[in-house]
Each structure stands twice: as structure tokens, then as C-alpha cells.
Amino acid sequence: MLARAQALISESALRGNLTALARRAQTRLLLPVKANAYGHDLETVARLAAQHPDVWGFGVAVPREAAALAALKLGKPVLLLTPPTPEEVGPLADLGVRLPVASLAEADALPAYARAHLKVDTGMNRLGARPEEAVQVGLRLAERGLLEGAYTHFATADEPDLSFSREQFARFQGVLAALPPVLAHAANGGGILSFGPLPGLSLARPGLAAYGFAPAHLRQVAPLTPVMTLRARVTHVHPVHPGESVSYGGLWRAAHETTVATVGIGYADGYPRGATGQAQVLVRGERRPVLGRICMDQCMVDVTGLDVQVGDWVEVWGRDELTVTEVAQWGGTVEYEVLTGLGTRVERVAEH
């Protein structure tokens, strides 16, 4: 069956982003591939990234992602970034998954063959041990021979004011100073781009930046290219006469004879319904408006004057002319939400 929509994943763009970020951080990378690799497909991205010399390993958010990565046998470490349940600790350790630890009870519950990364809360107030507790937990893990790494997370490193991020890093450095040498990591994409190399860190964790996106004020810091191009097929072409409306609610009405293409992508696939009334797509290289309300499975596009046939591809977002940043703005959200919301009906295809 022909795919109605495809996400083309560029190996060269991903490779270039990883190289640029590793150079900027002057460390190896722990690449987050959580949320289906930010919508890009976990297996596709992991297989491509595992070949990159600057990638130390992968970060995931839930045990199922860790198990899926372990099953690929890529020869790279996998770190679970959020706490497992007590019942999940043993099976994950059996798979070689690195486990986050933030309490003495968690440290004592680990099997003797586990490898742990101490999670330090330096101000995000989401997960982890506060610095004074983290030192105790880290020393307990070290006594047991289980401490491989330590990490924290910047809350505001993608913003122009870096004062709070500097406070966080100082707290983290205080913890590291009280521990034996470990694989230390703190810098997310914003941290890498804002700070460059940070003393004492041996890994960096570029999330959205690895997939080609940076805050506006940091876009010139490193050469990043969006990894995904999303395209969808034309499924129907038809005329709409003056005075007729298109889609639910009759939000758009034709002022003149219009040729309309129905395109096989909608909000069930991750194309934001909130972009209704603003969205555009690329048809044969031209920007054309999406007409009326975006539907669950499809949307309608003005293709008047263009030679468009059923089966043709329409670019929904790409790397240059129309990126997911613009689509997210139309939908009143951010790139993270649009990319991670890309549905399973969208076929992922690796491009060389």
C-alpha cells in the first residue's frame, strides 16, 4: 500500500548536526532518542547515529524505549533518564541499561552488576537529588562500584539570560568535586550552543538541536540542518466554484474558480489543527495556502494554475523554504510538540 505521508530522515543532516554539536561542546554526545527520536523514528535515528564517532550512547525517557534500543544491539550504552519502578530495575540492568539514581534507597536496591548515573537536581525541580543529598548517594554508589556517571539538566539554557544556568552549573560542579571521576553531563542543546565547552563535563545531551533546531538567538552559533522533510500525497483534485466553501464549518469560501487538491495528512498524523487559517504547503516549489479547517486525515490546498495530479507529493515542512518552526508558530506551539506528535501512519524513510 502506498504511504499517504512520509517523513524523510536525512542521514547527512543528522551526521552534520552531531559533528557540529560535538565540536561546539568539545565532548562526545549522549544523544536523546526519546519520544520516538523526537518523532523521527527511534530505530532509524539510532542506527544512523550509532555509526557516528562522536556518539557515546543514547538517552531515553521510558523503559520500553530502553528495551527497544537494547534489542537493536548497536553496541552503544543506553541511559534511562527518568526513574524506573522497582519492578523494572532488574530487567533493565539485565539488558545493560544505565539507570538513574537519586536516593540512597535506590542506590541500595541496584543489583551488583548495574551501572548508575547519579541524577542531581540543581534547580529544575523535576527529578533528582538536591546537591547535599546527591553527594551522599553518589558516594554510596561509588562504594558499591556502580557509579558510572552523574548528570543534571539546565532549565533556561536556551534563553538569552544565562544567569540561572550558571547557578545550576556551579551547584553541579560542587557535587562533582566531592565524587570520584565520572561521566558528567549537563548541557542540553541550548547549553551546548550557549556555553560551548564546560569544564569537567565529559558528555553532552543535544536534544532538539541534534535534529536541526535552535532558538532564534543561537541559530548562527553552529551549522544545524533540519533532519526531517515531511511530505504527503495528493489524493484528489477538484474544482471549487465561486461562493462554495471548503471543509468543516465553511471557514473558507471561494471568491473565484479554484482548483483544490485534497492532501492525505491531518491532525491525526500530527499536522496541527491549530494551524487552520494560516498553514501553507509547498506544491511544485510554490507556497500554497491550506484552505479551511485541517481535518483528522486530510487537508485541502489551493493548487490553481499548477499541474497537479493524484499521487503527487506536497511538502508539508522541510529543511529550507518551509520548516517545522513556521508550522509550529501557525499552530501556536513549539517544534518539540509538532515533531513528537507525528503519528504512526506517517512512514519514516532514511535518506542518504
From TrEMBL:
Q: Name one GO cellular component term.
A: cytosol
Decide whether keyword Isomerase is in the record.
Answer: yes
Residue limits of the Alanine racemase C-terminal domain?
Answer: 227-351
Record-annotated active site:
34, 248
What does the record give as EC number? Answer: 5.1.1.1
Q: Which UniProt keywords apply?
A: Isomerase, Pyridoxal phosphate
What family does the database annotate? Belongs to the alanine racemase family.
User: Do you know which NCBIfam families this protein is assigned to?
Assistant: alr
What is the native source organism of this protein? Deinococcus phoenicis
Co-factor(s): pyridoxal 5'-phosphate
Pfam families documented for this protein: Ala_racemase_C, Ala_racemase_N
UniProt protein name: Alanine racemase
Which SUPFAM superfamilies does this chain map to?
Alanine racemase C-terminal domain-like, PLP-binding barrel
Which transformation does this protein catalyse, written as a reaction? L-alanine = D-alanine
Which positions carry N6-(pyridoxal phosphate)lysine? Answer: 34
Which biological process, per GO, is one annotated for this protein? D-alanine biosynthetic process
What InterPro entries does this protein's entry cite? Ala_racemase (IPR000821), Ala_racemase/Decarboxylase_C (IPR009006), Ala_racemase_C (IPR011079), Ala_racemase_N (IPR001608), Ala_racemase_pyridoxalP-BS (IPR020622), PLP-binding_barrel (IPR029066)
